[in-house]
Specification:
membrane; transmembrane; 8 helices; about 180 residues; about 60% helix; mainly alpha; about 0% strand; Yip1/4-like
């Protein structure tokens, strides 16, 4: 390279830092990372975290650890199951009167994104994904109500079925607003 031979390197620049490897006892936790763990352990760890958040949604209590350890698996499961239950049998029949899977999925996630952006623009201190996680888990009462209503409809449609479904939806609404 032309001109590189003319470059002088100053010998008085001190070198800083520790380049030796400390000799001592290593614990098993220091050498273990999630990249090395088996897939089964990863899945079980994630399922336990989602389960804890489901319990937290059912019985709310103050916990900043749940907000700090956000995930999108639970909201994804809730949204997909709600969309599948709302889809019902309309895909098999020629009557497409019910909501379609993509419509429900997009409405829930786009709504969560809009609310999250609004929160951030108003000076919210939680991260984007923390907000999406909380809003996604808030779909749980809707999903539970839809599951119970589907099970009641399997027993048959009628006035009693309508009253039971009305009570279930009212209870889930009350539960979600507590």
């Amino acid at each position: 390279f032309p001109g590189l031979a003319d470059a002088s390197i100053s010998q008085d620049i001190p070198v800083e830092g520790e380049i030796t490897v400390p000799v001592g006892s290593h614990s098993l936790d220091e050498d273990y990372s999630t990249l090395d763990e088996p897939v089964k352990d990863t899945i079980m760890r994630d399922l336990k975290a989602v389960g804890k958040k489901f319990v937290h949604v059912m019985y709310p209590r103050k916990s900043s650890a749940l907000l700090r350890d956000w995930d999108l698996w639970g909201p994804l499961v809730l949204c997909v199951s709600l969309a599948l239950m709302l889809q019902g049998g309309s895909a098999d029949s020629k009557d497409n009167g019910g909501p379609q899977f993509a419509e429900v999925f997009v409405i829930i996630w786009f709504g969560a994104i809009v609310i999250t952006l609004n929160s951030k623009l108003l000076g919210g201190t939680i991260s984007f994904f923390q907000s999406l996680c909380v809003l996604g888990y808030c779909v749980m009462p809707l999903t539970v109500a839809m599951l119970v209503c589907r099970l009641v409809l399997l027993a048959g449609a009628g006035t009693v079925s309508f009253i039971i479904r009305l009570i279930v939806v009212g209870a889930m609404f009350a539960w979600s607003t507590l």
